[in-house]
Specification:
This protein is mostly helical. The radius of gyration is 21 Å and the shape is globular. Helix 12 packs antiparallel against helix 13. The chain has one domain. It is built from 15 helices and no strands.
């Protein structure tokens, strides 16, 4: 029962955050709204870590600022800004291209060619985005917001790779809370720099925007992320990773049902293509990692047969699972 509820959280809550963002930015400036969300969620996570006896190391804050700028300042800021210009369902589909960036970055960083299945997924993903831009909303969509969101997802992928230990603590709570707080502060500074606050009037904020912001803080950043972190400990990573292609489908459906966003045949086709591409990428990485594991086991067996004494001195070689990079890119939430 607990596992089912946790999956429902990462599927439904994270899928609904795109609609909540759209409602929130209707009367709250985008950078200010995201800054308040991230600061509050970051403070709550750090407070919880402190209560459990964990401490944020002083030397980690510089790294947290870099990671927070990339993951939240760029990625979350891009999503909030874009949702004033394109439908929330479209935004969610562009965000779903994150595994494309992760695959490309892993290829560049490790120098190991992805599996054919993963490469096919990357090609399909870009094809789905092209289809989305062409007539995803019933008419050609503005290109700038889509490009900004895609670049933001690239920044998220870089930041999530950068945020790995030892730069940031191994504690899941601190690893998320520190960049969240730092990124939130940077978003608020960005809001001040672009003079959002000068035109912002608290009395003009709608009750719907207030509720949406509260939902993003509590449900989107705390409850869903806690469920995600727990699932990563008790469930298979590939199964947890299925949220990456379920979330946009939920977002498209909610955008059409609640906000009256256009649900065209092209948008549905784009959603299917992009979700399918993500599934191929995840499956491709899992297959690639499993093959590497088998090779590693065979290699260690050969070492034992050739020289038992050498095997006792030399540790067996184990393959690093590339899929771990995919699962780490969703801290603490897709939007």
């Amino acid at each position: 029962m607990a596992t089912a509820l946790a999956y429902a959280a990462i599927y439904l809550i994270w899928g609904s955050t795109f609609l909540a963002i759209r409602i929130a930015v209707e009367s709250i400036p985008p950078f200010l709204m995201m800054g308040m969300r991230c600061v509050s969620a970051g403070l709550l996570l750090i407070a919880w870590a402190t209560f459990r006896g964990e401490r944020a190391p002083a030397r980690g804050w510089a790294h947290a600022t870099v990671a927070g700028a990339l993951m939240f300042g760029c990625a979350y800021g891009a999503v909030a800004w874009a949702e004033q210009r394109i439908p929330s369902g479209v935004t969610s589909l562009v965000v779903a291209t994150l595994p494309l960036w992760v695959t490309a970055l892993e290829w560049a960083r490790v120098g190991k060619r992805p599996s054919p299945r993963a490469l096919l997924g990357v090609a399909l993903g870009f094809g789905g985005v092209a289809l989305l831009v062409s007539r995803g909303g019933g008419a050609p969509l503005p290109l700038a917001p889509i490009v900004v969101v895609m670049l933001g997802e690239g920044a998220w992928a870089i930041g999530s790779l950068y945020a790995r230990p030892p730069r940031l603590p191994k504690s899941v709570t601190l690893n998320a809370g520190m960049p969240l707080l730092a990124g939130g502060v940077l978003l608020i500074l960005t809001s001040l720099a672009v003079r959002e606050v000068q035109t912002f009037q608290v009395r003009n904020v709608s009750s719907a925007s207030v509720v949406a912001l509260g939902y993003l803080m509590i449900f989107g950043s705390i409850i869903a992320f806690s469920a995600y972190a727990w699932l990563m400990q008790v469930s298979a990573p590939w199964r947890v990773g299925t949220h990456a292609y379920v979330n946009p489908l939920i977002a498209v459906a909610l955008g059409a049902a609640v906000a009256g966003e256009p649900l065209t045949s092209t948008l549905v086709a784009s959603a299917i293509v992009i979700a399918g591409s993500v599934a191929l990428i995840l499956a491709g990485h899992d297959t690639h990692a499993a093959t590497a594991d088998r090779v590693g086991r065979k290699a260690s067996t050969v070492v034992v047969r050739e020289s038992p004494r050498a095997a006792a001195v030399r540790p067996a070689i184990t393959a690093r699972r590339v899929v771990s990079s995919l699962r780490e890119t969703r801290q603490p939430g897709p939007a």
